[in-house]
Design a protein that fits this description.
With about 350 residues, this protein is mostly beta strands. It has 2 domains: about 100 residues, no CATH class; about 230 residues, Alpha carbonic anhydrase (Carbonic Anhydrase II), CATH 3.10.200.10. It is built from 4 helices and 20 strands. Strands 6, 7, 8, 9, 10, 11, 14, 15, 16, 17, 18, 19 and 20 form a 13-stranded mixed beta sheet that branches. Strand 1, helix 1 and strand 2 form a beta-alpha-beta unit. The chain starts with 6 loop residues before the first strand and ends with a strand.
Length: about 350
């Protein structure tokens, strides 16, 4: 009873106020004050103040607490009927409880998915949202990736921070995880965007590009996947086109036709910076992973200038991967910014 500051409480909101944490705590305080008032003597109830912080009950993996190095994220809550109050603001059929899912982008080998998915057929992108409750954002999400970047009317110029690619040279370590050829990184490579620093986890390729510029695909798109100490994700997308004259050779292990095959070649090294265009201007927007569970909250950085790759490199990826591309998704009012 001797607190000098309010007790801080975090809890989900409700689709109606009576189902939210704030309403419940107000009722609890009323009961508490009634109880205090019925007792004999003088009781000092200072320190009984509450500070209630509500977060959206339908949010998933959103940061609800970030203080003193501690980060807490939300899980989906289940709509309820309590004390005669019906949750009518949401569909009456409750969604199955969704567990936190580790994205396969942060696995160094093959990964057991919540449900098998692919880029074609009954497990293809049109059906991802139905394959598992964990994949519902593929259908319900409002900030999904990839997108079509329209340079004529959808790009807003902003004074964006410069990019610093602090990548290190290391030996070649690659895996065919069944959906792409992934190049795993050892600790020590970083991306700095203004005052934020992200660790490079891995990079991988999509054929053709997933993002389009004014409706047009590039031959390939390379995703450099980064994560901050607080778990925030930034993906740098580099578009690539085949060119016989001015081209670079991506580090490709030529014997990776089988899913699950991996290789570490101590005699071959590369620096991912070699695959970043010299021109560091970029588009940026808030989106999602482009593969299930299509988690949102990803900071996308799409380089404005493409790189050139050898036609033989492109042919190898096409032969190994086929077409591993998710169609572009609606913007839903999002804006795309471009660095000056």
């Amino acid at each position: 009873m001797n607190r000098l500051v309010p007790l801080r409480i975090w809890g989900p909101s409700g689709s109606v106020p009576e189902l939210g944490t704030k309403y419940c705590m107000e009722k609890m305080q009323e009961m508490y004050k009634w109880d205090i008032g019925t007792r004999s003597g003088v009781i000092d109830f200072r320190g009984g103040a509450l500070e209630v912080n509500e977060f959206p009950f339908d949010g998933i993996n959103e940061i609800i607490y970030d203080e003193n190095g501690v980060v807490i994220r939300s899980l989906l809550t289940i709509p309820l009927t309590v004390a005669g109050v019906q949750d009518n603001a949401r569909p009456t059929k409750p969604r199955e409880k969704v567990q936190s899912v580790r994205h396969h982008y942060f696995s160094t080998g093959t990964h057991k998915h919540e449900a098998e998915w692919s880029y074609a057929g009954k497990h293809g992108p049109d059906f991802w949202g139905t394959l598992s409750p964990s994949y519902h954002l593929a259908t319900d999400g409002q900030k999904q990736s990839p997108i079509d970047i329209r340079t004529d009317d959808e790009v807003v110029d902003e004074d964006l921070p410069p990019l610093m690619f602090l990548y290190r040279t290391e030996q070649l370590s690659v895996v065919n995880n069944g959906h792409t050829i992934q190049h795993n990184e050892q600790p020590g490579s970083f991306l700095q965007v203004g005052d934020k620093v992200y660790t490079l986890e891995q990079f991988h390729a999509h054929v053709p590009s997933e993002h389009t510029i004014n409706g047009k695909h590039a031959d390939m798109e390379i995703h450099f996947v980064h994560k901050s100490p607080k778990g925030q994700v930034a993906v740098v997308a580099v578009l690539a086109n085949a060119d016989t004259e001015k081209s670079i050779s991506l580090p490709v292990h030529m014997r990776l036709p089988q899913i699950g095959d991996a290789a570490v070649e101590p005699n071959r090294s590369r620096n991912p910076t070699d695959f970043i265009p010299k021109d560091h201007h970029y588009f940026t927007y808030s989106g999602s992973f482009t593969t299930p569970p299509c988690t949102e909250g990803v900071r996308w950085i799409v380089m404005t200038s493409p790189i050139q790759i050898a036609p033989s490199t492109l042919a190898h990826f096409r032969q190994t991967l086929g077409r591993n591309v998710r169609p572009v998704q609606p913007l839903h009012g999002r804006q795309v910014a471009i660095s000056r």
